[in-house]
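ARCHIVE CARD
Drawer: 12
Card no.: 0347
Subject: one protein chain, sequence and derived structure
Cross-reference: see card 0346
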Amino acid sequence: MKWLLYNCLFAVAYTAMMPMFLLRMKRRGGYRARMGDRFGKYTQDVIEKIPAEKEKSLVWIHAVSVGEVFVAAQMMNELRKKDPSIRFLFSTTSSTGWKQAEKYVGDDDILIYNPLDFPLYVKRAVDTFNPRAVILTESELWPNFIRQLNKRGVPLFLINARVSDRSAPRYKKMRWFFGDVLRSFTRIFAQSKLDSDRLVAAGADNGNVKVTGSFKFDVAKRNESKEEEVAKWVSSDGEKSRILLGGSMWPGEDEVLLRIFSKLESKYQDVKLVIVPRHFEKADAVEKNICDAGFDCVRRSRTEQIDTGKKKVYLADTTGEMMGFYGISSVAFVGKSLCEHGSQNMIEPCLCGVATLVGPNTENFRPVMSDLLSARAIVQVKDEEELLENIESLFADQEKRLQLGERARNAVLERCGVVGRCAEEILEVVG
């Protein structure tokens, strides 16, 4: 009865959201040509890559967001190191996830869009690929998909598992439903004790949930060649400087840093501000804010720059260079944490040994923040005024700034290795 109820509600919800999905497809493009994947129907080139022998069948790994794809990619790489014969079926649900996944799948792997979570489509997909094991990331719980795998006895893993503050009460209240879903997993690797407790409260088998820490500590990698490249761009005027970086800025946060920079630049002549928007298509709006604040905007994507003789602010409006900018920063503020909720990845600047600050809203990185705060490796502020006070303090005291950066780097390095340990446990089951 509960499965009938779920399928009816899912059908209604999916139908209601269809216009939004179609609009997103039109805007982003990318996966209309593979629409059949959604219904468990695959192109001939995909079918031809499926191994005929069961013992050589694919390990199916699923991730959605860019961050989840990075997590899944780390697991793929680690499993491949330990067993080079493994081939992967990688599924995602968005065109942005697809573009990221393309960077990591090998020539012998298969990349698809995940089937819609209706019994017919899920069964058709599982029949087609007959996976030897399935790995889901973070909070990807697709009930019909999981139920179908459980019926067939396919080993099922949830890696880097987390339960958000918003989802936890709902999961617990619907334990009668989610309990069956969560107990279908062979092993759940939780980011924190809190996540583990929430999963058990929602019905997971306590013996199958293991606290491992966050995979995100293993995902971040320094990019020294990119650091050299962006350093030349920021110092093209020949001035040696200290850099205040706004990383993954969301609307409103760039304006906060511009107000702060207006107060800093007269006091610290060698400080430069670099703003990296979370979405590069917002760069025009950020440029307007920079000019309205009385500065010249130097855009990374432009070869010719406007120079009126005013103080410059650097706008990094390209993709794939974030780690380079973190690596050359003196002080970094991580966005989506002051004017928005959730936060972007604060592990990246910490790994680079940068004095790192975040706002009060870091729900997406709760276990990570707990670790970093306990190690005194990051500064969390409650508002713009406190952000200004801490940035001024760090620029005024070099030793304090360097010590904070060193604690940050050590805190990240000490927590690496989670992916390898989980990969070993998965291989013990998969064989």
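Annotation on reverse: The chain has two domains: 14-213+417-430, 224-414. The chain has a mean pLDDT of 91.
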